[in-house]
Amino acid sequence: MENGVKEGEKKVCRRCKETYETTSNAPSSCRFHPSFFVCRRHDDQRRYYELGPDDPPYAAKFYDCCGAEDPNASGCTTDFHVSYDD
Ligand SMILES: [Zn+2]
Ligand SMILES: [Zn+2]
After folding, report:
1. Model pTM greater than 0.90?
2. Residues 16, 58 contacting (CB under 8 angstroms)
């Protein structure tokens, strides 16, 4: 038995966490940053890591992909939404 994909089925995108309809998923539907929001501690160390909740406020923070310093900045790349089933 196969369950046909219903038209307008709603899924949650695992990348941007938005709900979308499979029928309206387009290459420009999902806006996201392909890289992590990173934090640079010292210029000489050049060590990057994924930003955690306890990171100190003095550290330079930005998206590694585009350099946006606002964690809420809209994505610099668009693509199809990706469901948890894909
Ligand atoms: Zn970006
Ligand atoms: Zn998405």
Report:
1. no
2. no
Ligand having the closest approach to the CA of 26: 2
Q: How far apart, in whole angstroms, are the C-alpha atoms of residue 56 and residue 35?
A: 21
What is the CA angle 38-41-47, rounded to 5? 65
Which ligand ends up closest to the CA of 35?
Answer: 1
- Lowest mean pLDDT segment, chosen from 7-11, 59-63, 75-79: 59-63
- The ligand placed nearest to the CA atom of residue 14 is 2
CA distance 46 to 33: 21
Torsion of the alpha carbons at 65, 71, 76 and 81, rounded to the nearest 10: 110
